[in-house]
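Reopening this one. Same input as before:
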Amino acid sequence: MSTSPHSGPADYEHVENPELALKYAIQHLSGERAEIIEGVITPMSPSWAHENAADLIREQLGPRMRELDYRAGSGNLDLPGSENYYIPDLAVVPAALARTEGPLLPDQTLLVVEVTSPSNGDTDRTVKRRRYAQYGAPLYLLVDRQEQTCTLFSQPGRLGYTRAEGPHPFGVVIHLPDPFGLALDTSGL
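Same output, byte for byte:
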C-alpha cells in the first residue's frame, strides 16, 4: 500500500482551482524559470543577444525611472482567470510594488517590454500583445529582433491595443509618452 496522498490521475479532478494550482507549481519549479502561455508551460532561456536588447532599454530608462521612483525587472505577471502567467523581458512598476514577493498584474505596470526570439516571436507579436491589452498594461513595447523593428502599443482595450506606433526599424528613436516623456534610442538592439 502506498503512502502517497494521491493514488492516481483521477485525484486531480478534486483540485478546487486548477488555475491557481498550475500557477503555484510554475512559481516553485526548482532552479527553472518558466511561464504559461495559453496553458502551455514554456521554459525561459534567453540568449545573450536577447538579454542585450533588454539591458540597453533598461539603461536608457534608468535615470527617468529613478526620478519617478519606478523600478524595472522581469518579475512575474499573472493574468487571473486565464491560463497565462508571464515573465516579461522587462516591466516598469512603481517602486512600492517592486517590493512585492508575489506576481503583479499587467495593469499595475507602466510599461511592458518583450524582446522576440526565433522560438517565441509569434507569441510576443500576437498572443502577448492581445493579452497585455486585455489585462490593462498601458504601454507594450515589442522589440522584434527577427524583423529588426520596434513597435509601441498603447490604449489597451478588451480586443487589443487601439494605438500602434511602428513598426520602426532599429535605429529610429521611439518616443515613450508620459509618465516617461523620453526618447528611446533603438540603435544597437
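So the earlier flakiness isn't reproducible anymore. For the record, The longest strand covers residues 160-169.
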